[in-house]
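User: I want to check something. If I give you two sequences, will you return the structure for each one separately, not as a complex?

Assistant: Yes, each is folded on its own. Here is the first sequence with its structure:
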Amino acid sequence: MKKLKWFLISVFCLVFVPLSVKAASGTISISGSSKVVVGNQVSITVTLSSGTKIGSWQMVLNYDKNILQLTSSSAESGGTAMAASSATGLTKKSYTFKFKALKTGNANLSIVAYSAYAFDDMSVLSLSTNGKSVKIITQQELEASYSKNNDLKSLTVEGFEITPAFNKDTLEYQVIVPEGTKEINIGAQVSDSRAHVSGTGTQAVTEGTNSFPIVVKAENGSEKTYTLTVEVKDEHPINVKVGNKNYTVVKLRENLPTNVYYQEYSLKINDFDIPAYKSASTKLVLVGLKDESGKITLFTYDEKTKKYGTYIEIGTNKNTVYPLENAKAPVGYKQDTLKINGEEVTVYRYQEKSDFVIIYGVDIETGHKGYFLYDTKNQTIMRYNDEYITDLQAKNDLFKMIIYGFLGLFVILFIILIKLGKRKKGPKKEKPAKTKPTKKKTKKQVKDDFDF
C-alpha cells in the first residue's frame, strides 16, 4: 500500500508538474553594409554565438547569385558552407564573405541548413537567425542620397558675445576682445551629424583685426563658410597705406613673422617702440604690417623718408634674394615683369616662353649684388654666371671684325683688278669704211663701154 502511494505521487509529478530544464540556445546573425554601388565590393559577416560553449556546428549562407558574385570566403570549404568543431568549445565563431555587386536591385542573404551542438553534452542548441538585405545602386543614386546640409547649429567664442546673434543663414560675425588678448576659443556645432566643420578650437589673435573662416562641409561635399572677425582692441593704432591697401603697424615682437637672415631691431614710429628686423648685408629694415583681414606681412621701412615698401624674398636652400631695380639688362635679354610670391618683380627674358629668367638683386645672407638665374617652373634661384656669354660675345665681335676685314680686302682687290684690266687693252682699231656694193651692169651697158 505504501509503495503504491509513492508510485502514484511520482506519476502525478511527471504528468502535472512541468520540467524547469530548458535546452541551451544560440543565435546566427548576418551583418554588413546595407548599401553598395554597382561594381564595388560588399563585405558580409556571419556570426554564430551562444552563452553555452559550442562543440560543433554547420550552416550555409544563401544569397542571390543574379545580383551578387562571391569573390572571397573564410569558410572551411572556401564557399558558403560553414561546418567545423572545436576541441575546447567556443562561444562565438565568425565568418567573412566578400561579394561583388553585379547590378542594381535588392540582394537578400539568409542562413539555411543550420545546426549546432553543445560542447559539454552534445545536446542540440536552439538557434535563431536573421536575414540581411543589401541595396545595390548606381554611383549617381548614391551621391543623390548624400545629405546637402552644410549649416551650423551654433557658433560661439568662449567668454565673449558675438554679433549679430547667431543664425544659420547669417555668414559674417564680429567679436571685440580686450587689448593684450593672445588667443580665443571658437566653438561650433553642425546641424547634420554627417557634416564636418573646420576652423574651430583655440586660435591665436594679434592686435587689430583677425579673420577666421569656419567651413562646414556637407556629406555631399558642398561647403559653406562662416566668417568670424575678432577685433583685439588697440588704443593707439598706427595706420599706414601702402599702394591702395590699408595696414596697421605691428607693435608686438611675438606677432612678427620670423626671418632667419635678419637681426632683431627696434625703432621709433609715432613715439612707439616698434619691433623690426635689420640686415647688415642688405641694409634693409623690415617692419610688420597687418592688413584688414588680419594677415601680417613684412615690409621695408626707410628710417629717413619714413616710407614703407613691399618686401619679397626669392629663396632656395642655397640662395635667398631680395630683388632690386636695375635699368641695364644682360646682353641679349629683354626687360619684363613676373609675379613671384604675389608681387610683381622686374625680370629679364631671353625668349618669351622660356622657363628661365634673370633677376637683379642682393643675396640676403652674403650681401652679394648681381644677376641671378630664376627657374619659374621649379621656383629655384642661383647666381647667374655670364662669363660664358661675355666670352662668346667677345668672340662673336672678333669674328664679325674678321669677316668685315675680309669683305673690305675683297672689295679693294676687285677694284684693283678692274683697273689693271683697263690698262692692258690697246687703242681701238679703226674699222674700214663701208663701201657701197656695185650694181651689176646690164648687157647694154657693157656693150656701150666697148663702143668707142
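And separately, the second sequence with its own structure:
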Amino acid sequence: MAKAQNKTVSIKLVKSLNGRLASHKACAAGLGIRRMHQTVEVSDTPENRGMINKIHYMLSVEEV
C-alpha cells in the first residue's frame, strides 16, 4: 500500500486576538499564529482541526 500523504492546512488570522478568551488565544498560539494577517501552514491532524474549529470565527482556512 502507498503511504498516506501529509495534508496541510493554510490558516490566516483575520480577526484580532484582543479581548478574546484565554483558551482561544492559547489555540491561536498552539497553531503558531502570532499576529494579524499572518499565514501559517499546519498539518491536518485531529488536534489541529480541533483548535481550528474552536476559533473558526477568527480564521480564514484553506486546504492545501
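Because they were folded independently, the notes below concern the second chain alone. The longest strand covers residues 8-13. The mean pLDDT is 93.
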